[in-house]
DUF3533 domain-containing protein (Phlebiopsis gigantea), 437 residues
Amino acid sequence: MYNEKLDEPYSHHILEHSVEARSKLKLYARINFGVTALITLTIWAILSIYWGANWKFQTGIHNLNGWIIDFDGGIVGATVTQAYLNNTGQKTQIDWYTVPASMFPNGEADITDAIVNEKAWAAVAIHAGATSRLDAAIAAGSGAGYDNQVATAYAAEARNENSYLFFVGPQLKEPLDQAVSAFPMIQAQRLGDSITGLLTTAPTLVFQPVNYTIANIRPFDIQVGTAIDFVGLIYLLILSFIAVLGNYQARVMVTGLEKRLTFGRLILVRLLVPILMYFWLSLAYSLLSLFFHVPFDRQFGHAGFVIYWMLSWMGMLALGLAVDSLITILTPRFIPFFLVPWIIVNVSVVFFPIEVLPTLFRYGYATPFYNISRAVRCILFRTRNEVGMNFGILFAWIGISFVTIPLFTWWVRRKQVLERRREQPVAPESASEVGTA
């Protein structure tokens, strides 16, 4: 007959025939089955959000606008304009349309300001007098002194470097290449019999009468820029999460302050300690970029680093306090199932412009990641300055957590007090444990 082993540590096998061993094995399998099921649901329900943000993003490119400004008014301007109009109208193409030159009283300087201030994603300007200068060179029979740069295309890579790489840059350049290739044939028809003489005296006026310049007015020119405005945001959230776990362990499991303090004092600890922790951690995080010589002084001078530090601090508070709030009711056991969606819903809206994503992703304008990234781009690359609004949205997230942390703490404290009352008689003066300061 089988003799059960004593329940001694380090002495059992997996498939023992005892009732206790079978019970523990079943419990172990049941827990792992439940965890696997929850992770599976997370994969299908949450990770699909990020997959969706990158799936068929090309069909949203038509939501990006591009300007065609003809300062020339001649055959050169008409040729370039038509080249762009031939490359629009599809969902996978930028929405190119003509804008009157009269809207830019200061000339092409106004176009630069408009691109920086995000009035358009891209613009092409055909220079004033492009046709008349070409005609004058033809009449003189000489290409000496003739500048064939008839157009300038404008875009700001730092607004979103991925869109610039994948579609804004290519769709800005392709119509110009088509115009440059097509214009020599148009020029040959215009010249008629006089083309023979020009082939000898000024062949450039026949074979390459027009060319263009690409003006990337806000280049993404900092090597560690992606580490700051994209991947680094994930690290910022992970660091906040680690701080939340450490704070929870110290408060609940090690010191017992969770049940020792009155409700008011507990809330004070729960709000004040993360603020102080993130103040230092955000400084350490910000100094890392300074060590790698990131130029924080481009937009705001020497205040740029301090602004970035405060942005990182508020970002950690917005991200970390949300986790701190939910860990109250989810506990460390289930908080990872909030962390994953929290990362995914944030990271899904910062790789490509929200404009090209499905309508569902419009929520991204209110996410911490998006607003931190926008403010970072302004500080580092001098893109559109909405730093005040970006801070305001982060403050709103912090404010929500300042409400939910006391609310969830009160709910958990109430359950704890009721359980304690059921377990043992409670003195009359203990009735004030719920909600007292």
